[in-house]
Amino acid sequence: MTARKVMLLGEIGVGKSSLIRRLVFDKFDYDYKPTLGVDIYRYEVPESTERKAMSLIVWDTDGNMGQAIFKHIYMRQAAGALILGDVTRRDTLRTMLDLGQGFRDAFPGRQFSYLVNKFDLLTKDEPPDLPEGLTTATVPVIQTSAKTGHNVNDAFLDIASAIQRRGL
């Protein structure tokens, strides 16, 4: 089975660890513990009509690195990235856009998606306040909630399919 490395990028507290724990263990933990360095998880993507089975080796990174992460050894051989922001903290969405541009510049042709996380914290009547770069993005922008599991599995299946289509 093919294994591909996927990075989780974003500021501290946007829900990277919660997202991958929801995917791998189908759990949400209210006890927040920041990632120091990197935590690595494996997720088996099942075969479907659009993709072969593959293993995603997901690197949950420390949110303190900013643009310096693109020069770090952690990024070596990354086939793609999921870049997270917190819908309730607009500054993290701008950082998400900056990280997306940094990933595009450092790894041209590799797949990434923006995950706007914590949608469960908005009321049904409250529209998200997204920066223009997200409303006009040419890469997938997926609304997620690590707490409820909304679109978490789909985000990882989507990037696995894109990585396979691109032959990465």
Question: How does this structure look, described?
Answer:
With 168 residues, the protein is an alpha/beta fold. It has a single domain, classed as Rossmann fold (3-Layer(aba) Sandwich). The chain has four helices and six strands. It has helices at residues 16-25, 90-106, 132-135, 152-166; strands spanning 2-9, 38-45, 54-61, 78-86, 111-117, 141-143. Strands 2-3-1-4-5-6 form a six-stranded mixed sheet. Helix 3 links the parallel strand 5 (111-117) and strand 6 (141-143). The longest helix has 17 residues, at 90-106. The radius of gyration is 15 Å and the shape is globular. The relative contact order is 0.22.
* CATH C-level name: Alpha Beta
The major β-sheet equals:
6 strands, mixed
Structural class: alpha/beta
Second-tier CATH architecture: 3-Layer(aba) Sandwich
The coarse overall form would be: globular
How are the strands of the largest sheet arranged? 2-3-1-4-5-6
Uncertain stretches of 5 or more adjacent residues: none
Strand content bin: 25-35%
Mean pLDDT: 89
Q: How do the SSEs run, as a string of H and E? A: EHEEEHEHEH
Rg computed from alpha carbons, rounded to a whole number of angstroms:
15 Å
N-C termini distance: 14 Å
Q: How many structural domains does the protein architecture include?
A: 1
